[in-house]
Design goal:
Elements: H1 2-10, E1 14-16, E2 28-30, H2 32-51, E3 56-58, H3 67-72, H4 75-78, E4 80-85, E5 92-94, H5 95-98, H6 101-120, H7 125-133, H8 135-140, H9 146-159, H10 165-179, H11 184-193, E6 209-212, E7 215-218, E8 228-231, H12 236-240, H13 243-250, E9 256-265, E10 280-290, H14 295-312, E11 320-324, E12 336-344, E13 347-358, H15 360-369, E14 375-377, E15 382-384, E16 387-394, H16 395-406, E17 407-412, E18 415-420, E19 431-435, H17 441-458, E20 461-463, H18 469-479, E21 483-487, H19 489-493, E22 498-502, E23 508-511, H20 516-524
Helix pairs in contact: 2-16, 6-10, 7-10
Bound molecules: zinc ion.
Amino acid sequence: MDSIISLCKRRGFIYQGSEIYGGLAGTWDYGPYGIALKNNVKNLWWKRFVSDREDMYGMDAAILMNQKAWVASGHVGGFSDPLVECSNCKRRFRVDQIIDEDDYKEDVKKFRNFVHLYIDSGETKKAANEAIDKNYKISEFLSLSEQKKKDFLNKVNEIIPIANIAAIEGILGQIEKLESYSGKFARFYLNQKVTCPSCGVKDKWSEPRQFNMMFRTTVGAVESEDAVSYLRPETAQGMFVNFKNIMDSFHPKMPFGIAQIGKAFRNEIAPRDFLFRVREFEQMEVEYFIDPKNWEKYFDMWEKIRMDWCLEIGLPKEKIHIREHAAEELSHYSKRTTDIEFDYPFGQKELYGLAYRTDFDLNAHSKNSGVDLSYFDEETKKRFIPHVIEPSVGVDRAVLAILTSAYVEDEMNGEKRTYLKLAPSVAPIKIAVFPLLKNKPELVKKAEEIYVILKKQFGAVEFDDNGNIGKRYRRQDEIGTPFCVTIDFDTIEKNAGVTVRDRDSGKQERVSEKDLIKYFSEKFQ
Ligand SMILES: [Zn+2]
């Protein structure tokens, strides 16, 4: 990864965000070649998912939305991770990243059994409240022998003879938190078993709390609760809230989809792995509206389109894996989700999600806004809230997959070289044109002529006469240019055409000037 990050900086693909001020964690800035690569990725996506199709409507919604949209979508209430702070070094961690999940779950099970024993033994509200306050003490009893537990319960029974429903509910409320790694029990567990990864201290953990990942801001001059808005954490909601607008303007027949490419923001606790986990990123999403009886057919359709696109941007098939989400992993509203995972240098990780979200989103927006978001099917005379299939991919994750799989170190003519084996479809520069020597006006003039012709045809063409030819090749190899065209004396004196060098093999062949456009058109097909 270090070599790739270094190449990206050196050659003008990607820079650290706000670098001269020491950076801002979780942000990256795209340089000239980076944005060219990224735009190629986005354009290919838009072509395959939107403009090649008859059933898609593109849009670009505002990043800031009415806060009610985020309440309806569940992001205000639930879009959060439990965080814990080490009071010794003041660093914060995601609980799920520092605990041993299996061990934790085992302890939760024991604790739950104990609380049930405690409840079954009968007690009052006062005792239950005490229990809530002193969960960690109760938890210490997990390690007691059965006899000692019984003794304890008997003692409780002596003082508190009658069970109290409210108290039991209070305790059960605590139990729900156990699964989400937050609350007092999680703190007890951490202090018993987890060492701070930063300072090595064991028992200074705070109580873990849910932390909302949305960036909050206020709109307008007055900082009141009504003025609160958020930088969107996903582009999807912008499409759901425009569902009715698209219906009213275009009267589409089901099935149809809305597509969007745009920025999204998540206040990640621990941004890492270069472009993979960042705080500001770009998404490409489709919300495809269907009659639920056909959902499997359209799920399969988008799975195929998604895979074709991954191959089209040049990702190697052997690094792509499809992973089906297990039932317990699915969001409460999703009936099926499959991820394309990719072999990144830091592991096999999610690249492209595909989720059947049922009618959850439109239903929620319909209820919360009071606006009818149903669809009337003219054929079946049936009115219903459409269901949704959602293919969703991060642009930056796709760029990272391309860069990491294209990065090659090899040897050519006895020299070490580094190059990016980019598919021509995404390469920032498709052809570089050189005069063999910089100080021969006749070579330069001819090279410029050919450069203009090729640029007019293929767009992403670069002219380079800096340094010697070997140095120019090395530079073009590193930015992933598939072909270099050199104009030499034979081009002019013998009308022998130009040489075309292939990036991957280093082989050169002569191509006559008049055949150049045809030659490259075939190569790029
Ligand atoms: Zn610490």
